[in-house]
Amino acid sequence: MSTTIHNYPFNPCCFEDLPDEILLSICSYLSQVNILDSLLN
Questions:
Q1: How many CB atoms within 10 Å of residue 18?
Q2: Where do runs of H (alpha helix) occur along 1-41?
Q3: Long-range contacts of residues 36-40, Cβ cutoff 8 Å, at least 24 apart
């Protein structure tokens, strides 16, 4: 999971500057990835 985060073109400290919609889309994307990960494992 940490390797996935490192591939993003921004670092987590910039999250406060992002609009809520972007945060929500990122969170939903991450949760989908987590679900896929758990299904594959």
A1: 13
A2: 2-6, 20-40
A3: 37/1
